[in-house]
Design the sequence.
């Protein structure tokens, strides 16, 4: 009887599950801690209607004159988003964690970091969307700056 209930439950989950989707984003923006520096990166994600998971890589350039370190991050994130676009917009909230590497001259730190943020995906044409995002990073260990802010805009494709 237990096996029958388990199989019936699994069949219902499969029958009523929302279709999975995937998307990829390339982006450019600015990291403004302690000064504005260019950031570039990409993300790849997959999920269901409301919950999605993504991996993101970003690379912020070093600013030697302002003593602003370079920062590379690789983060795994969970996104909570509206299930559909509302007037062409799909807002989302995200949080996650992963590794970072910060360096300035001979100083460097590699450790764990966490991020929280949000943004919006904007429908453009078919599967092509724009994406605007804000993130607050909390860096562990002994980085020069343990709180970092980043804003970016990117091109996103859904497949």
Sequence:
């Amino acid at each position: 009887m237990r096996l029958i209930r388990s199989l019936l439950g699994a069949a219902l989950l499969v029958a009523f599950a929302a279709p999975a989707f995937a998307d990829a984003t390339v982006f450019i923006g600015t990291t403004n801690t302690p000064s504005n520096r260019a950031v570039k990166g990409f993300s790849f994600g997959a999920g269901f209607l409301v919950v999605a998971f993504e991996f993101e890589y970003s690379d912020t350039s070093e600013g030697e004159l302002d003593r602003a370190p370079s920062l590379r991050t690789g983060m795994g994130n969970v996104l909570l988003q509206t299930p559909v676009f509302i007037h062409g917009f799909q807002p989302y909230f995200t949080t996650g964690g992963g590794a970072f590497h910060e360096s300035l001259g001979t100083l460097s730190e590699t450790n764990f970091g966490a991020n929280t943020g949000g943004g919006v995906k904007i429908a453009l044409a078919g599967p092509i969307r724009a994406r605007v995002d804000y993130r607050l990073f909390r860096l562990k260990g002994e980085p020069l700056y343990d709180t970092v802010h980043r804003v970016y805009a990117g091109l996103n494709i859904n497949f």
Summary: Residues 2-16 form the longest helix (15 residues).
